[in-house]
Amino acid sequence: MARTRWRMGFHLMPPVGWLNDPNGLCQFRGTYHVFHQYSPDWPAPNAPRGWGHFTSEDLVHWRHHGMAIAPDTPEEATGSYSGCAVVMPGAASDGGDRLRLYYTGNVKEPGDFDYIRTGRRATQILIESDDAMSLGSKRVILRNEDYPSNCTCHVRDPKVWRGEGRWWMILGARDTSDRGIILLMSSEDGVAWTVANELRSSEPFGYMWECPDRIVLDGRTYLSFCPQGMEGLPWANGMRDQSGYAPLPEGSDLSTPGVSIDTGAFRRWDAGFDFYAPQTFVDESGRTVLIGWMGMPEAPFESAPDGLPWCHCLTVPRVLTRLDDGAIAQTPVPELERLREAEELLIAPGTMVFSGQRADIELTGIEGPLRLTLDGGLEIAFDGHELSCTFTEGADALGAGRTRRALPLDRMGDLRVLVDGSAVEIFAEGGRAVMSTRWFPVADALSVTIEGTCASARAWRMGDGMTGSVDA
């Protein structure tokens, strides 16, 4: 029963096996596509890692189509790793749009190698499609010898876009001084590429930068990336891998000569336990939408307790907006509200009990400190200075090894908490502060306790957008 309870109704999760990084996010010919890293044979040793594929017409109801890209060529023998999608308007044979998928093929050579400077091949591969379902042949467009000589063998995760009459690609890399960098590539046709720029930070900031992304909001360019080797920083909670963004200097872009990343301006996307490798896309209405992996590459806590046949999920799609101080707010896409069912009475202060473990909870007009507790063991609290997410003493099984996360916050006028089986996402102060965590409740019903004062406390039971999601 717990295995069924921990499945989710509005977070993308694999039918079986392992899921991680979101890849190839796009809205193509009116349909939303979410590809993702996928190992359907997990937990078998050395299970092949490729791309799985979800589609949706409304960002709410989803269908999974199994393995879309398998590591079936010599250039990706160790895995079809992360990448992106680019929509080419009017380029298909029928006059409609055409889709390009770019990704990294990873190869670890057999032998006594360190796999940093020797023994690894990182190729960038292109696939094209007119319908995003029937994929064309694979074409290698970049190999190790095409990268600058100061790069190690770690070069991966292409993000590609078109602008100023050219194609552009950024790649995450590790240089021979063991510092993370971003390579900017340029192309006339999206096939033949040359190095256009290298982006670095003024101070050392991790040994590898993964999953780079370029985001433009209100005319300001941001670089999103995942630095590795961060465990020694005070705010890193001892975790090697982090995920965040930094604004580029006003009036500059990634191609600006001499542009560098200000590490002092780096902000984490999500201060919770489970968030990494986000990717964004701009949909047909012009919204910039982010989806992240609710997992971590190396973590001292569990994401598949009791031998679950599946592991990990993605965040709900989040709309990005730029705030006055340059920070980026994240809020769940409004389409998610279509899954709201019966509204439940919430009393602040007080306790109520939901049937099931799916809920959308909204508090507004919060005055002073506040504490919201789920199932007596997961506390979401604001003390006037910080927002925290804490698995209380005796709740070890609930958090599967998770303990406490916190981030500074001057005020909190509103709070929204999404509970979905084994996923919890927290949005405070209009999405300025965000925290995500997996949890594994055993109660048949969800109890919600509020301590504090607010003008409004509302909650809805949530429906299931994943019903029948597996494509037969």
TrEMBL record:
Domain Glycosyl hydrolase family 32 N-terminal: residue ranges: 11-332
InterPro entries: ConA-like_dom_sf, GH32_Enzymes, Glyco_hydro_32, Glyco_hydro_32_AS, Glyco_hydro_32_C, Glyco_hydro_32_N, Glyco_hydro_beta-prop_sf
Keyword Hydrolase: yes
Domain (Glycosyl hydrolase family 32 C-terminal) ranges: 414-448
Keywords: Glycosidase, Hydrolase
Keyword Hydrolase appears in the UniProt entry: yes
GO MF entry, a single one: hydrolase activity
EC number, as in UniProt: 3.2.1.26
PROSITE patterns associated with the record: GLYCOSYL_HYDROL_F32 (PS00609)
Enzyme class (EC, first level): hydrolase
CDD domains: GH32_ScrB-like (cd18623)
UniProt record similarity statement: Belongs to the glycosyl hydrolase 32 family.
Protein name: beta-fructofuranosidase
Native source organism of the sequence: Collinsella ihumii
